[in-house]
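Q: What structure does this chain adopt?
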Amino acid sequence: MSPLFENEATRQASLLIIDDEPIAIKNLSHLLTKAGYQVTTRSTGSGGFKALEEQAFDVVITDLKMDKVDGMGILKQAQTIDPDLPVILLTGHGSYESVVQAMKKGAYHYLTKPYQLDDVREIVKNALELVTLKRENKKLKSQLIEDNIGSQIITQDPVTLRLLETMKQIAPSDCSVIITGESGTGKELAARFIHANSHRNSQPFVAINCGALQEELLANELFGHEKGAFTGANSSHKGLIESADGGTLFLDEIAEMSLNMQVKLLRVLQENEVQRLGGTKTYAMNVRFLAATNRDLELELAEGRFRQDLFYRLNVIQIHLPPLSERKNDVPILAYHFLKKHTQDLNKNVEDFAPEVLDILIQYGFPGNIRELENLIERAIVLSTENKITLAQLPNSLTENSVSVMRFNKNKLPTLDEQAIKYVKWVLDKCGGNRTKAAEILGIDRVSLWRKIKKYELN
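A:
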């Protein structure tokens, strides 16, 4: 990318002037240097070619008629290097047909000798504004593509693939969605995926963790405030709901929100308008709401910790993300994805995993899910001294013990039978269905295990 975007506040725009008339170069160089531009000059077309290859410019000014390499050749070369680079042609009288041809081929503008100084300044200024706009648009488009790529969910798990199809189906609508799942399963990534596949994808995606702030701070962040609303409110402040206008607001850990805050949020959802703290004016808004929680919202409703009316407003569609322990076939592809990502970020030459490393990762229960896997891979890359991750880079807890995790609903204590069913199923699964081995681990004989399988209908 042109240096025009490296640091706009501290650098000058860079211009290249090519002309085989020394007096023309001198006059233009003086004029444009005085105007605040960084000017490079060349007295031949071949010299201009070389300059274009060696340095990035923001505008090229070239004479049309030159020996060997003329202005048309410079135009072609400039477009090859940077299609957005504006080329201004300097022409004498009687070159009308050549100018028309050059404009058809993409020249930005032309100046007829002798030219007016004000015309030069104006055309160069306009050319710079145009190239700035084009490059900023490309940068934004590139960022959008990167955002969309970053919103892709990497999986080969059949259940998760079906979830992706569901999310693609619901993305074009404006319905509210609640995304559930354990911590680290990628709930925000799922929200970004929905946003990226919606008609709102060119508008803001705004996220906030409702459990990270006290009620007063959360209210200020969401709703904003008017000047004088509280001590220190020296100016009006737009909240995140207003900032997300036209786009998507993602409310992470929605179940952590107090009942009082839930009432205020419900009003926004019902009225499609927001009122800043300390104000009476309401602001219309057009926002899609996505929410996420790792809690059991049905239990939260039953216990009175979550409002039923807000639940039904948000829970038009519910998406549940499975834990990584139920997506074992995704562990290798996710591991390689994070390997590529963090080797680039950390500038390390690590290309692969030792086979035993992948075996351990596949067997591990990952209570922290995908986030924990990513952290493990990043840690291993940092510690690696070879081009391959080995057991030496894994935590001792993984290499010394085969750690497995049996999950229970943390919001509800299981009954003895429920716990027994889950535990027997879990042990059978870990033993690959081998009843003799499972009975040995459970500390019972095969007949007792058979009775439990029959009682709990585990066949």
